[in-house]
Amino acid sequence: MSSARLMTASLDDNFSLSRLPAEMLAKSAAMTPGRRQQWRAGRALLAEALSVFCGCETLPELLISAQGKPFFADTSLPHFSLSHSKNHLQLLLCPAGEAGGDAEQMRPRVRYLDVAREAFSETEYQWLMEQAEPQTGFWQLWCLREAWLKQQGGSVWQMDRICLDPALKSFTSEPETNCRLWFLADGPVMRALALPAEVSEPEEYAFNAASGDFIPQASRPWSSFSSR
């Protein structure tokens, strides 16, 4: 099977900005400090990954699709998806096709059941209520949705385009897509990926900011949802 690479880092890492084009740095100068840190860190991580895995000296030209999703002008480069939550940053690279990833720090959310009732299907809501830890189940369903929407170039306002069946580990979507969803509870972080169906669970790397290297990580027990 084809593979994808998942790289994790922290927003607090001391990222080098030397691989980012001057116009990109200038664009971020007007952002608020918090937004600027997130924006630059994500693109610096992407630039480092393209340097290590694709041999690019600087971050290649990025374009924006009609759906608002960034992609490389050079179509020989991999598809990618960036996500962050609190200080957690992740990058997904997938040469085989469109991909989406989401990371969410699992945290108390007072009205999470109200959100679930509004955003999830009845099947999902009933499954959620049967869980020993409903908030963990909530973040699982939320992340899986976000990953699929990011793969499609959609937004959080389009969550009704996908319906998950957690008991059967399957999903339906509009439009139908030939993809597989993956999720993992990684300590305090829930991670989810949407990958082409032929792609296996990801190869994982942790970014070492001091050296600029990506350290391979041991395989972990990702769970998957298949399209039906």
From TrEMBL:
Give one GO term, molecular function aspect.
transferase activity
Pfam name, any one: ACPS
Q: Does the keyword Lyase apply?
A: no
Domain (4'-phosphopantetheinyl transferase) ranges: 100-160
User: Which of UniProt's keywords are assigned here?
Assistant: Transferase
What the record says about family reads: Belongs to the P-Pant transferase superfamily. Gsp/Sfp/HetI/AcpT family.
Q: What is this protein called?
A: 4'-phosphopantetheinyl transferase superfamily protein
What organism is the protein native to?
Rahnella ecdela
Q: What is the lineage of its organism?
A: Bacteria, Pseudomonadati, Pseudomonadota, Gammaproteobacteria, Enterobacterales
